[in-house]
């Protein structure tokens, strides 16, 4: 049986281990080799890469994608997209979502993995539709979480809805690394039984379950798994590519991945790993196993945020109370999956409830917006008393939030005038206005400097 391998070193591993600080120049020389490895796809764009290119790396993200495409001719390129939020944290109007996907396609993208943090499929329907219209593979995604209302039946129902929306595959996305081997086996089996599409499993090694979870997912019929080349694997990253390929091949699965080539790829990344360890951008701690998430049923990243918050407020001795309050807040909010931005919202609120000595005395503007329905529909019922306490007589919106937004692509393009040299610049600006503006200015300055330099040489 065939099992596809998606290599994540350029996106999720990069994002999870070294805060997405891998510049294009550092990996350009291995791209052609990676293209011969036999990977099903290279996850190389989307997520935090776009923001990081503009903010920290002085790179045009669109350019990065075009350059990757130039060197990777055979292997499919893949990106992660947060539905109506694209690569940011707020909802964009539909015209922006459509433009963004069209340009991603033009720059060479093949597969778009589309998710919504609340699994509110209304927030991914436009992105799914446009991905299909552009002729790309739309991977409809389910965020995996544990709660009394997130049952197998509910996940299967979501998978069926994704089929109706035109998904080309179903991705189970376990962003926190809490999906156990058994849960993966049961969930993949149930989805494979209910739908005909390929199933993709994405997890993280954070809690140490990752490699076992992927193996059991494959045994249950998963068609594609995400892994990272070994020196950028494990911990908060994905399970190691080579170990999974080795194991699966022994069991008779065909991955199509050439183990001689993955060795060369790993050898290429080893000195890069060493360099990031030396500069402290890669903290060895993130590569270790942290099982606390299994005890508290919250993602490791969220746990360290809670600890940092309490430390900053000199209240670390209240950690146990905050950990007890966290599931109560989550229940009040209708059990949102604990993924960005919900994990932060729930954690901050639980901390505030404990430290104020009164529940919901202080409510953040994000939680208010959530209660108003601006993030979408909560998976479960939101505590009506909480809605009343925070919103008073104001009624939450029940429709799709993006329907309340005016189109903004053409308008922004006009406003930007010469500052934007292309539609891609306009999209970068809409996604991250201040950051993009700074990037445009720096680009201009760099070019002027270059022109002066050239002129002097000619003289
Ligand atoms: Co991930």
Task: Give a concise summary.
It contains 21 helices and eight strands.
- What separation lies between the terminal Cα atoms? 67 Å
Label the overall shape. globular
Q: Helical percent range?
A: 40-55%
**Number of extended strands:** 8
Spatial extent as radius of gyration = 22 Å
Write up what this structure looks like:
Helices cover 50% and strands 9% of the residues. It has 459 residues and is of the alpha/beta class. Strands 1-2-3-4-5-6-7-8 form an 8-stranded parallel beta barrel, surrounded by 7 helices. Helix 8 (152-164) packs across helix 9, helix 15 (319-332) crosses helix 16 and helix 19 packs across helix 20. The longest helix is centred in the C-terminal third of the chain and has 26 residues, at 433-458. The mean pLDDT is 95. It binds cobalt (II) ion. Cobalt (II) ion (CO) binds at residues 12, 175, 202, 204.
Question: How would the blueprint of this fold be written?
Answer:
Elements: E1 4-7, H1 9-18, H2 24-27, H3 31-34, E2 41-46, H4 49-55, H5 61-71, E3 76-81, H6 94-106, E4 111-114, H7 125-133, E5 137-143, H8 152-164, E6 169-173, H9 181-194, E7 199-202, H10 210-219, E8 224-227, H11 241-250, H12 259-278, H13 292-296, H14 300-312, H15 319-332, H16 342-356, H17 365-371, H18 384-391, H19 409-416, H20 423-431, H21 433-458
Helix pairs in contact: 6-7, 6-20, 8-9, 9-10, 14-16, 15-16, 19-20, 20-21
């Amino acid at each position: 049986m065939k099992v596809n391998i998606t290599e994540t070193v350029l996106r999720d591993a990069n994002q999870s281990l070294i805060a997405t600080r891998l510049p294009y120049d550092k990996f350009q020389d291995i791209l052609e080799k990676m293209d011969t490895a036999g990977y099903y796809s290279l996850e190389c764009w989307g997520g935090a890469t776009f923001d990081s290119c503009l903010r920290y790396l002085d790179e045009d993200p669109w350019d990065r994608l075009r350059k990757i495409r130039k060197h990777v001719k055979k292997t499919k390129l893949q990106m992660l997209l947060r539905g109506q939020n694209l690569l940011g944290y707020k909802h964009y109007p539909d015209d922006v979502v459509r433009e963004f996907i069209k340009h991603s396609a033009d720059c060479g993208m093949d597969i778009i993995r589309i998710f919504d943090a609340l699994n509110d499929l209304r927030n991914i329907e436009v992105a799914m539709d446009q991905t299909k219209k552009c002729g790309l593979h739309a991977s409809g995604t389910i965020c995996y979480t544990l709660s009394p209302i997130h049952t197998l039946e509910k996940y299967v129902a979501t998978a069926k809805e994704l089929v109706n929306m035109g998904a080309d595959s179903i991705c189970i996305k376990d962003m926190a690394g809490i999906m156990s081997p058994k849960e993966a086996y049961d969930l993949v089996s149930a989805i494979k039984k209910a739908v005909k599409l390929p199933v993709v499993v994405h997890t993280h090694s954070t809690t140490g379950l990752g490699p076992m979870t992927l193996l059991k997912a494959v045994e249950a019929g998963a068609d594609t798994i995400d892994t990272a080349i070994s020196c950028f694997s494990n911990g908060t990253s994905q399970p190691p590519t080579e170990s999974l390929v080795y194991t699966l091949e022994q069991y008779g699965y065909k991955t199509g991945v050439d183990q001689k080539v993955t060795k060369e790829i790993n050898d290429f990344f080893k000195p890069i790993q060493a360099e990031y360890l030396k500069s402290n951008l890669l903290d060895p701690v993130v590569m270790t196993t942290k099982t606390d998430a299994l005890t508290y049923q919250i993602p490791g990243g969220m746990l360290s945020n809670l600890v940092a918050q309490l430390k900053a407020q000199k209240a670390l001795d209240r950690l146990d109370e905050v950990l007890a309050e966290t599931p109560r807040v989550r229940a009040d909010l209708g059990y949102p999956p604990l993924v960005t931005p919900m994990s932060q919202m729930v954690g901050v609120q639980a901390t505030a409830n404990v430290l104020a000595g009164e529940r919901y005395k202080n409510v953040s503007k994000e939680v208010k917006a959530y209660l108003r329905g601006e993030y979408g529909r909560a998976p479960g019922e939101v505590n009506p008393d909480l809605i009343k306490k925070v919103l008073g007589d104001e009624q939450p919106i029940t429709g799709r939030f993006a329907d309340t937004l005016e189109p903004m692509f053409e308008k922004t393009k006009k406003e930007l005038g010469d500052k934007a040299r292309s539609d891609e610049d306009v999209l970068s600006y809409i996604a991250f206005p201040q950051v993009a503006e700074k990037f445009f200015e720096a680009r201009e300055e760099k070019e002027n400097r270059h022109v002066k330099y050239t002129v002097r040489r000619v003289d």
